[in-house]
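Re: the request from the purification team.
They wanted to know what the chain is likely to look like in 3D before they choose a buffer screen. I agreed to run a prediction and write the result into the notebook, where they can find it.
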Amino acid sequence: MTKFFRVEALEKWVEELAAFIEKNVIVGEPTIIPKWQEAKKRIEALEEKAVKMQTMLFELNRSIEALRLTSATMEAT
């Protein structure tokens, strides 16, 4: 394959790719989400869940400490 044919093949591939991208975009929003973008969304969702879980654990620990304090106070009486 000569350089000329490689360049022609590459140009054709670029045109096909551009047509594919054009076809799969509706009003500026891609209809095909890249895998990295999907993964990023999942990671963000997991991070949000982790923050909620940390908050719940903090509140649970506070409740446990309050119960221990109440129990210790009642035993001392």
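For the purification team: Helices lie at 3-23, 35-76.
Please add any questions underneath this entry.
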